[in-house]
Amino acid sequence: MIIKKPNKAHPKENDITSEKAYLSRRKFILGAGAVAGAGLLGAQSFLGGDRPEAAAIPPSDLVAKKTDFGAGLTLTDEAAVTGFNNFYEFGVSKGDPVRYAGGMETTPWSITVDGAVDKPGTYALEDLIDFNALEERIYRLRCVEAWSMVIPWIGVSLASVLKKVGPTSKAKYVAFQTKLDKTMFGTRYPVLDWPYQEGLRIDEAMNDLTLLSVGLFGKVLPNQNGAPVRLVVPWKYGFKSIKSITRISLVEQQPATSWNVSAPREYGFYSNVNPNVNHPRWAQDNERIIGELFRRRPTDMFNGYAEEVGQMYAGMDLKANY
Ligand SMILES: Nc1nc2c(c(=O)[nH]1)N[C@H]1C(S)=C(S)[C@@H](COP(=O)(O)O)O[C@H]1N2
Ligand SMILES: [Mo]
After folding, report:
1. Closest Cα partner for 128 from 144, 115, 143, 109?
2. Mean pLDDT of the region 198-213
3. pTM score above 0.70
4. Which residue among 24, 41, 55, 287 has the highest number of C-beta atoms inside a 10 angstrom radius?
5. How many helical (H) and strand (E) elements, i.e. helices and strands, does the chain have?
6. Is the pLDDT reported for residue 213 higher than 70?
7. Distance 45 CA to ligand 1 centre (A)
8. 151 CA closest ligand 1 atom index
9. Which residue has the CA at smallest separation from atom 6 of ligand 1?
10. What DSSP assignment string belongs to 44-67?
11. Beta bridge partners of 250
């Protein structure tokens, strides 16, 4: 049987009404939950019963050194950052991940490092990431769907992690894989090539801007944002920033990436933010600012990091290598 893939898997953007409706629905649900919870608490203590179901434990705080990255940018509202997501393993609507990703177990978490490295192995997250050396960096996340958010990420440079495992001279690319968790009901549908996979060239991976993030807004990552560890590559479209990473492979050949496999004409390997190269179905020269209805801004070359990353692509045709 041939299963036809829906070809609108990555639509341009949710229209404004749906985002607005979504955010107000979320507010309503949170409000209703608080009222219902209070009612339940009252009833239960009156009846002298057991404690009501424990309230969701708020994500714990992280200690991170502030940096100058993104100084002066206006942060996106935290509720939008944690409530309007792309994490197709938990559904293709922007409101699905916050609703359905909560059951994914993220502790303990291990990452398998293999391929062209001196020290391959399966590592506990804490052995790869030094939680005493976390930094906060403010980066704009520019989604290929032509919207963006400004987020205070917490993490360490990917380079600091790769140096621990020692890439050999054969390591020309880095491939990443998301965990395939049984709670990810979205992976039952052939929307994307599962498990979600992404890749970077080794110089892109070693660039100081490339972050392995474990938190945002001072707290550990919520599941819907890619707990417990996700990539953030600020000069590339958002889909390169793979979530809930469980495997890092150092390889000699350019690795396959989920979006490229699913729609090669629309999503290339590089996917550098580039206002001069349109997506086949929409323009990329401007973006909607999430959380600010109706406001758009022009898209910057390399999402504003041309000075830092431009030389890595010197001499390359960025239209052919989109
Ligand atoms: N595993 C996995 N990673 C993923 C995705 C996904 O569907 N699955 N979506 C990507 C896309 S399209 C974007 S725009 C960003 C969104 O990150 P955010 O939800 O934290 O804003 O995650 C990226 N990482
Ligand atoms: Mo995206």
Report:
1. 109
2. 98
3. yes
4. 287
5. 8, 13
6. yes
7. 42
8. 21
9. 87
10. HHHHT-PPPPPPPPPPPB---EE-
11. 115, 174
